[in-house]
Amino acid sequence: MRDYGVFDIVGPVMIGPSSSHTAGAARLAKVAGTIAGSSIKKVQFLLHGSFAQTYKGHGTDKALVAGILNMDPWDEDLKRSFEIAGEKGIEIVFIEADLGDVHPNTVKFIITKDDDKVTEVTGSSIGGGNILVFDIDGQAVEFTGERPTLLTQHRDLPGVISKISALFYDENMNIGNMRVYRKGKGKTATMALETDSMIPQEIINSIKEMEEVENVKFINPILEGVL
């Protein structure tokens, strides 16, 4: 029998009618926006399954745009997300799509920045406001964003993971979960590392300075608002 958390029982603090279609959507988009980085000029939302069928009626569209704007699910401005995105000059496009054999509440984000760099993130809102990100730029990954999460892209060379792990050991920090993904030996690898406590900026900076590391992103867990 699976363990149940408080969100499974009472649901998350949020604006909107549905934890899956509103809170989960906002969380998912906020993570996608964090992965892409700042200076976003356009976002295409490829909506799958239930998301595609009900995104207007359940406010999923507003929640997704709010997340891209770095809003939390309980932010009162969530209802004005389209207006705020327009003020910031961000182009928003919704497309109904078949993303294959995935959860019905799945969205693929195609995010274009001011420098025309494109980032693609795919994930699902899996119930109770919880999310699962499972693809970044065509690379399979798996993380929920429930705990502090460090994402790295690094050259698949011996010793890289050991060097990163040693930084956490030196700070007496526990790594709760670590997954490494690669498309082939010696190519670029992606690592999702979840910790039991907040990751100090000093560790993040040290990882960025490693010659083998190409990119680093930190996903801060979204804390609930006050009821």
Q: In words, what does this structure look like?
A:
This protein is an alpha+beta fold and 227 residues long. The protein has helices spanning 6-10, 19-36, 49-54, 60-68, 81-87, 160-170, 201-208, and strands at 40-48, 91-96, 106-113, 118-127, 130-136, 139-143, 149-155, 175-182, 188-195, 213-219. The protein folds into 2 domains: 6-137, 60s Ribosomal Protein L30, Chain: A; 149-219, ACT domain (Alpha-Beta Plaits, 2-Layer Sandwich). It contains 7 helices and 10 strands. The chain has a 6-stranded mixed β-sheet. The chain has a 4-stranded antiparallel β-sheet with strand order 8-9-7-10, sandwiched between helices. Mean pLDDT is 87; it is low at 1-17 and 223-227.
Features:
single chain; 227 residues; alpha+beta; 60s Ribosomal Protein L30, Chain: A; Alpha-Beta Plaits; 2 domains; 4-stranded antiparallel β-sheet; 33% strand
CATH architecture of the largest domain: 2-Layer Sandwich
Which percent band covers the strand fraction?
A: 25-35%
The low-pLDDT segments are 1-17, 223-227
What's the main sheet like? 6 strands, mixed
The side-by-side strand order for the widest beta sheet comes to 2-1-3-4-5-6
For this structure, the CATH topology of the largest domain is 60s Ribosomal Protein L30, Chain: A
| Element pattern in H and E | HHEHHHEEEEEEHEEHE
CATH class of the largest domain: Alpha Beta
Helix content: 25-40%
- Structural class call reads alpha+beta
What is the count of distinct domains? 2
Oligomeric composition of the shown chains: single chain
- Described by the principal axes of the CA atoms, the overall outline is globular
Per DSSP E runs of 2 or more residues, the count of β-strands stands at 10
CATH superfamily of the largest domain: D-3-phosphoglycerate dehydrogenase, domain 3
Mean model confidence by pLDDT: 87
Give the radius of gyration. 18 Å
Q: Total number of helical segments?
A: 7
Distance between the amino and carboxyl termini: 30 Å
